[in-house]
Amino acid sequence: MPRVANPLTKVRNRLEACCFGQANFKNLPKDKDKPSDPDEHLNFYRSHVPIQREIVPRVDEALDLACERLGLDRTMVHGFIIKDPAVAAWCVSNIRGNAVVQISSGMVERFTTLEMAFVFGHELGHFLLPTRWLCNRLPNGTPASMEDAAVYRQIEISMDRFGLVACQDVKVAASACLKLESGLGAENVTDDVASFCQLARQGFVEDFTEYVAEAGMAHPSMFTRIQALQNFAESEEYLGLIGQKGGRPHAEVDAAVAGQLQETIERFVLRLMGQLLMETHHHFAAMQALVDGQCEVQRFVVGEMISADVDLVKSALSDISQVPEASRENYIKQRLAFFIRQAVVRCPNQMEIYLTKLLPNLEGTKLKAHVEGFSEDFRSALVKHRSGEAVISNA
Ligand SMILES: [Zn+2]
Fold it and tell me: How close is the Cα of 176 to the center of ligand 1, in Å?
């Protein structure tokens, strides 16, 4: 049988510039578009109002426009209205073969046709650039760790770029973002994104411990998303896609966006991860003083970034020494269990790399067996966490 060309290949090649960070068309698996059931989307017709010209003309026009500008065949795109006053839209990511997008009635009521085209472009981006292979998700769909959430945030930057290609006007995209963020319609919110961004910037305080909840979020702050859109709108590739000439080189734009992410949430997330690794590291060094009778700091030089700070080892050791001897073993166990619980939700990949590098340094020490036990407990806790089980580690 002759091989049938995948109709999405051409679309993807044309939209390559929309990909940002780790999310790109090159690292998708071969069977990415294979439907598990070609009729999987049909049940939505039983329970929702479909987006069709005769029924919801303005929404249909927006979806048509998004498909046309992205280069997607409209017959493979199925849109539905979700009866919900909130402002929201979705792409049903587990359906392949057909793109299934949904938009809330609350969004239809408040968004202009072009703003809806932006939203549909974003959601269709999730179909064009499926990302469930890129990072781990919990069974409830949320990112499995801060590391996974950071990848998700890059993905959402990419999706907004598909949205911009679909609406072809950065002012429209930005006003859609303000409506998304506020939940308000045009009678109550302006499109003054400059004022919004100026005020939003104030919210980024230096105390990184404030960011624990946000570090797990799949979307960057709206302020960062708007800035990223404004940057992409000036790129050569985007201007080329909308038939204009000039613009900034793509690499320069991506570097600016990466820098803006670093200025906001990502810098703090790195510190939250680093804090945990360093606490674990110094606890191990203090444990060596207990189990081997001395702490050999040269064994705790791990890679180029991690070494043992003598004062921090002393402080961890003094924390342990203050606990009455009868409870000390239990205290150490609890500390290790805490590090495991935190590592699975913060930085499982970094912890894995750290342990792999640390263990050979501990050859010939009594501490080695303790770190090996920690390593095993960490891995089984990680499997449990990703399957949705609560991690109760006794380490
Ligand atoms: Zn999205």
Answer: 14
